[in-house]
Structures are given as C-alpha cells and as structure tokens.
Structure to design on (268 residues):
C-alpha cells in the first residue's frame, strides 16, 4: 500500500512543471457501491477519497493522473480495501462561460487487499475507468463538479465493479477564461473608396448600382460612410437612401483625416 501511494505522490508532484498548458489540482471524494461480487450476496458500499493532477491542453481536452483510496467494503466473510493510480483522457463541453459537462475515460492500476479469516491477500491488476458529470467554474481558478464514476473488474478472485457518486473541487494554477459560446462571428468588412472633388464624389451610376445590389443581397449589419468631408458623406447617404437603402443602417463617420475621399464599409 505504501509503495503504491509513494508512486502516485511522485507522479502528481511532477505534473505542474509543464509551462504551456494549464495544470490543475483536484481533490475528490464520494461514495461507492460494489456489484458482481461472486463471493458473497449483497452489494457492499463505502466511501473513497482521491487526489489528481490534470493538464488542460485546451478548453476541451485534458489528461490527468490521480490516486484514489477506497475504504473497506465489508461483507459477511470478507473485507476489501483498494487503491488506484488512474490515468484518463478528458473532454469538457462548455454550456456557457461557467457551466460545463465532462467525460473521462482511461485505465486504473489497482491494488486490492482482501481480508478473510484474519488473513490478507493482496492482488494487483488493471481495469477500465470512466467518469461523466457536470461542473461549475466559481472563479477563473476554482471549479467544482458532481459526477458518476465506474471502475470495472477489480480483483482476481471474487472480482467486483465499482459504481460511485463523486464530487470534486479543483484549483487551476493559471486562470481559466472560457470562450463565450454565444460570441458573435468575427466582423467582416468590405470597403469601397471614391475620390472627392469640390464636395462631389466620383461615384458613378454603375458604382451606385453595384453598392445598392450588394446592400440588397447581403446580410450586413451596418454601412459606414467615412470621410472628413461632411458634404460628400451626406451626398453618398442621400444617394443610397433614394436608391432604397434604409437610413437606419447608414452611419456617417467623420473622423477620417482625408477630405479628398469617401470610404463606404459594409459591416457583416
């Protein structure tokens, strides 16, 4: 038992040394129910605690390594204590900037000590481990989660499956800022420029028709008319307005330094 705990501690300490990912330390606990025990009738239950280190590779994917100690499962004839070193790949789906769902899948190396008639039999093996649940980011550095954990086929003789309700609280060494799931698409701009002479633009009827066609067949948000020449801006706005473009989408911008040109921007 001490040997397995020492290995887990050394591996956990090494996790925060990576600089280009977000290291996370998680304390977990829960309550487990055993099933498929062939050596006794009934389904014993008991608590467990654990500690894990996680490397968040992105907003979605992570890898983690952890240690769990499962307290005694007492049956009529046996008492079983188990501990695990777990390695999992995780996926996190952000529902918004704070709430997320997650799933993890991996393997667990276990040591199971079964006591029968005051004699202890230690067994070792590898089992699949999976976890699914929901979590919440309280701050950029702290989050909590509630989930279900499954570890299959623990023990050589009289093996059992572990079904657990697990709660956890995590500390993120680097602040986590989720990308908003409702963020707008990147703003796309299409611009046209025309020269101004004597407060008149060289906007031809053909060019005006092209602008009107684009305005009527595009899903734009706004049309900006930009120049330092207010008269020229007004002329362009009037031309577009009389061609059927709603004045509500036309925005005059007079902060340009160029009095000899008018720029028309379609903001998509």
């Amino acid at each position: 038992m001490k040997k397995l705990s020492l290995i887990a501690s050394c591996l956990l300490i090494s996790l925060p040394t990576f600089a280009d990912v977000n290291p996370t330390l998680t304390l977990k606990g829960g309550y487990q129910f055993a099933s498929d025990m062939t050596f006794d009738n009934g389904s014993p239950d008991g608590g467990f605690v654990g500690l894990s280190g996680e490397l968040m590779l992105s907003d979605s994917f992570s890898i983690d390594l952890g240690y769990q100690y499962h307290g005694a499962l007492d049956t009529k004839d046996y008492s079983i204590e188990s501990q695990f070193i777990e390695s999992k790949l995780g996926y996190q789906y952000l529902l918004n900037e704070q709430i997320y769902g997650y799933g993890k899948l991996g393997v667990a190396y276990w040591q199971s000590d079964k006591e029968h008639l005051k004699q202890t039999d230690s067994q070792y093996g590898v089992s699949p481990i999976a976890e699914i649940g929901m979590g919440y980011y309280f701050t950029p550095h702290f989050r909590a989660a509630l989930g279900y954990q499954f570890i299959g086929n623990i023990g050589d003789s009289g093996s059992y499956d572990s079904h657990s309700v697990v709660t956890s609280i995590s500390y993120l060494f680097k602040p986590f800022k989720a990308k908003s799931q409702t963020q707008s698409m990147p703003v796309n701009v299409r611009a046209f420029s025309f020269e101004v002479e004597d407060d008149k633009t060289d906007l031809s009827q053909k060019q005006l028709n092209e602008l009107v066609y684009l305005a009527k067949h595009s899903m734009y948000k706004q049309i900006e008319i930009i120049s330092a020449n207010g008269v020229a801006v007004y002329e362009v706005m009037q031309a577009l307005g009389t061609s059927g473009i709603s004045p509500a989408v036309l925005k005059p911008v007079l902060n340009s330094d160029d009095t000899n040109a008018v720029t028309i921007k379609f903001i998509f």
Notes: DSSP finds three helices and 13 strands in the chain. The longest strand covers residues 119-137.
